[in-house]
């Protein structure tokens, strides 16, 4: 790598000092990346970024005191949308993943991933604008890294299916979605199962991913 080539700048925000230092050391060993700053919580990153210390990527812990990952990614997406957020968590539950992606995170990884996957995640976010942990994508999504739909065989959704997808991206339960759409829970189940088949996904997170990637919801 030439001396004139600018390294990709990374901010690390996690309230666990030991993990944060280990991440910084690991990222510093990647040829094309450099750690720009570390922070304990969202307030730290907010202070640094408003002082014009702006990274390309922020690795952001979801659960932190003072200003957690949800509040931080919302603030970043609104004020500095060019900063790509890679969410970091010990949890792989659908609600946490959906909420972080819905608020603007470009990727989601677990704290127990191997060093090689962290590098893959950073590369993928920079090149493809998205990444989910291999464990998560294998567990909950089918065909994440291939385009959903082929220009020669476009996926056609009805207005009701689009409305259902938009509501799936909220924190409403399926029962609440049925009430909101004035339909029975059985009809909601039919929408969900039809879309699972049509979009080649297996879970609610897969539906959310399709909706976000295809501009059916605002983030």
Automatic annotation (TrEMBL):
- Domain Response regulatory residues, every copy: 9-126
Source superkingdom? Bacteria
- Sites of the modification 4-aspartylphosphate? 61
GO MF term set: DNA binding
Please state the span of the N-terminal signal peptide per the UniProt entry: none
Q: List, in alphabetical order, the GO biological process terms annotated in this UniProt record.
A: phosphorelay signal transduction system; regulation of DNA-templated transcription
Transport recorded as keyword: no
Q: Which keywords describe this protein according to UniProt?
A: DNA-binding, Phosphoprotein
> Can the keyword Phosphoprotein be found in this entry's annotation?
yes
> What CDD domains does the record tag this protein with?
LuxR_C_like, REC_NarL-like
Domain HTH luxR-type residues, every copy:
150-215
Pfam families reported in the protein's UniProt record: GerE, Response_reg
- State the name under which the record lists this protein: DNA-binding response regulator
Which species is this UniProt entry from?
A: Puia dinghuensis
């Amino acid at each position: 790598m030439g001396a004139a080539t600018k390294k990709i700048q990374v901010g690390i925000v996690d309230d666990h000092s030991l993990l944060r230092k280990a991440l910084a050391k690991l990222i510093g060993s990647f040829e094309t990346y450099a750690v720009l700053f570390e922070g304990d919580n969202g307030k730290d990153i907010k202070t640094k970024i408003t002082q014009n210390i702006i990274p390309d990527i922020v690795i952001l812990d979801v659960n932190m005191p003072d200003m957690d990952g949800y509040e931080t990614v919302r603030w970043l997406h609104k004020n500095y949308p060019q900063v790509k957020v890679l969410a970091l968590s010990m949890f792989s539950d659908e609600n946490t993943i959906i909420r972080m992606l819905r608020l603007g995170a470009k990727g989601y990884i677990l704290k127990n991933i191997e060093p090689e996957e962290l590098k893959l995640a950073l590369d993928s976010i920079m090149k493809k604008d998205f990444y989910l942990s291999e464990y998560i994508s294998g567990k909950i999504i089918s065909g994440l890294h291939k385009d959903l739909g082929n220009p020669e065989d476009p996926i056609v959704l009805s207005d009701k299916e689009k409305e259902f997808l938009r509501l799936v991206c909220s924190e409403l339960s399926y029962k609440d979605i049925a009430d909101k759409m004035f339909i029975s829970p059985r009809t909601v189940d039919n929408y969900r199962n039809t879309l699972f088949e049509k979009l080649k996904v297996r879970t609610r997170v897969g539906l959310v991913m399709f909706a976000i990637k295809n501009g059916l919801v605002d983030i």
